[in-house]
Amino acid sequence: MFARSALRPLTASSRLFSSSASRQTKVTVLGAGGGIGQPLSLLLKCDPLVSSLSLYDIRGAPGVAADVSHVDTASEVNGYAADMLDQALEGTKVVVIPAGVPRKPGMTRDDLFNTNASIVRDLASAVARTAPDAHILVISNPVNSTVPIVAATLEKAGVFDPRRLFGVTTLDVVRAARFLAGITGPGVNPNDTAVTVVGGHSGPTIVPLLSQSSYGKSVKGEAFEKIVYRIQYGGDEVVKAKDGAGSATLSMAYAGAKFTNSLLRGLNGEKGVITPTFVKSPLYEDQGIDFFSSNVELGPNGVEKIFPIGPISPEEQKLLEECLPQLKANIEKGKAFAAQ
Ligand SMILES: NC(=O)C1=CN([C@@H]2O[C@H](COP(=O)(O)OP(=O)(O)OC[C@H]3O[C@@H](n4cnc5c(N)ncnc54)[C@H](O)[C@@H]3O)[C@@H](O)[C@H]2O)C=CC1
Ligand SMILES: O=C([O-])CC(=O)C(=O)O
């Protein structure tokens, strides 16, 4: 399926799976029966760095596991029913969480808070109890709030290590590269139009830094406004098109598998694995914002280095100013919930 000879040469940033190192890892998906969980489980089954895949959901995970387990890659797959959360987490090194409800048209990600906050808190408690050293990748929305909830839950349990908690903002990066390639001209490949996206993961908190991209820096005026809007509201495009049937699942599964592979490469000691992710960050701590997405180097301990956002244009400075107050409010909402 992925025969090497059939592939054109790829840059490190463009590969879905790359595996220069040999150590393999047990990965658990919480919410594996869902719209994201199913294709994500399939993609993780295809990742050569995953040795064992543990699939959990309150419904349907054993069926998904039976199905995915027939794919002829080396990893083993196990499915766990609703009452087997602790067994699903035993011995796992990486936990990916796409559990929770998705948006319908007319909703914001924050409208998911009331349902998803407690789902994520309870799953984080289980990770703290059963796999306290695991790296946790949070997909469930609203990411700007669910990540602080997971952090506070782990902190309460005395096992929080900020190097091991990640909000998955990779879909924004994937969209930015795709949309920029689309307006750059025929034949331009998204592999060559990577854009760093910083801030958070909802509307105005998503800040693409086009000025730092060789193709993006020439996008000005109305074209700039349009592509920024499209990157910030790409999720709404999918919610609208699915017309009540949910939000992005396939592109998110791709993005989730891509970020998981980056983390696994870092854990295996590969150098120079750098990608944006929403982590506990010192960058805007002086403004009371202690979670932020910027480029992060992933390594054997998880977060090895958090990069500052670097030089940005006056337009991007304005976007950042719009991002920060909303991001702060989202983070505080998560913390207030976790403190109850
Ligand atoms: N970070 C990002 O960029 C993105 C995040 N999302 C978010 O991902 C989440 C999932 O989206 P979909 O897969 O489309 O939803 P979905 O409804 O298709 O699947 C969610 C799954 O979570 C399961 N679930 C609910 N409570 C659970 C619990 N306590 N333990 C384990 N599993 C549980 C459900 O049974 C269901 O199978 C949503 O919150 C959505 O907003 C979606 C797209 C992008
Ligand atoms: O829009 C949503 O609700 C799902 C999501 O986070 C995205 O597609 O970026």
TrEMBL record:
Binding site for substrate: 103, 109, 141, 175
GO molecular function: L-malate dehydrogenase (NAD+) activity
GO cellular component, one term: mitochondrion
InterPro entries: L-lactate/malate_DH, Lactate/malate_DH_C, Lactate/malate_DH_N, Lactate_DH/Glyco_Ohase_4_C, Malate_DH_AS, Malate_DH_type1, NAD(P)-bd_dom_sf
Catalytic reactions of this protein: (S)-malate + NAD(+) = oxaloacetate + NADH + H(+)
Residues engaged in binding NAD(+): 31-37, 57, 116, 139-141, 252
NCBIfam families the record matches: MDH_euk_gproteo (TIGR01772)
Active site: 201
Protein name: Malate dehydrogenase
EC number(s) on file: 1.1.1.37
Subunit details: Homodimer.
Lactate/malate dehydrogenase N-terminal domain sequence ranges: 25-167
Family: Belongs to the LDH/MDH superfamily. MDH type 1 family.
UniProt-listed Pfam families: Ldh_1_C (PF02866), Ldh_1_N (PF00056)
Organism: Jaapia argillacea MUCL 33604
Entry keyword annotation includes Oxidoreductase: yes
GO biological process: malate metabolic process; tricarboxylic acid cycle
